[in-house]
Model the fold of this input.
Amino acid sequence: MIRVLHIITGLSVGGAETMLAKLIGAMNKDHFENEVVSLTDFGPIAERMRDTGVNVSALHIPRLAGISGLVGKIRSTRADIVQTWMYHADLLGGIVARMLTDRPVIWNIRNNELPAGAGSLPTRFTMRACALLSDRVPTRIVTNSNMARDVHVREGYRDTKFRIIPNGFDTRRFSPDSEQRASIRKQLGISDNDFLVGFFARLDPVKNHTGFIDSCASILTEVPQLRILMCGRGVDEKNVLLLRQLEAAGLRSHAILLGEQPDMPRYYAAIDTLCLASKSEAFPNVVGEAMACGIPCVVTDVGDCHDIVGEAGLVVPAENEIALGAALKALAAMPVEQRQAMGRFGRERIASVYSLDQIARQYERLYDSVVNI
Done:
């Protein structure tokens, strides 16, 4: 039995947190035992992890007791491997683990860069500190995209430490569902003739909600059947600024804002296309989830999106609202059969290359390899 101690910055709903929950649920429980420590607080993902039988604890750092708790946890752990997730956990968890144990340390990087003007100074400092320590602290560094590796190598991370393991997707949970499509569209007041675009992202400048809204506004005259479904933390009817942006763009009556939703496959089933307008990504979960549901995608050319989507959608330059709008317009003008063919191609691609079972086996092989070094 190989025991893995996962240290992650927090357990709110996000790409890294979601991937960790999916991973520990899919790993071979006869060979691997997982434990999860949040440096900050419990979040919605913690309960999901507990449902798989995993022990989850929170240290509430930056409280002083949290730091001593981390030291105590790592000092007393029976884990064979310390796996950290995201910059702050990589730095703090990695240093403490390296100082107190001789166990292999694996860092996990989940984004490809911090764009200009985004990201706090402490986060930038942490990333730079990790780069300086990358030769000595981690045994391996996992990232989920080629671009993320290349960007971090340019930032000074040790290139020979990297292993690329992409995100994985549960194609049983995320799958086409015509009954859910009809049910959700009826619930939301969306007709069969409406062209429903899904924009599923937490409120964050990197996700570029403003650019998405501008793109939709630019095609509204030509695509009057356009409807928008927006889900994600902070994207709801309480967000006065977002509502004003939609109103100014002439889209208020065309948009539905649902906030964070726990059962996203139902909403993927309802949309005609998923739009990703991000300024920066590594391997966005929403794209893989939409493809697994048989939904064609319109995405910006960030991270590995171009390679992931392929013929399952359209890829446009980042921060180009005109190109993004034109791509959405092109999807809206396509015969339904052609969009469905795109969707089928996308689902087949996820099942053959990015299924959760395949990705879990890649992590397992990595863990086996570092234990046997």
Remarks:
- The radius of gyration is 21 Å.
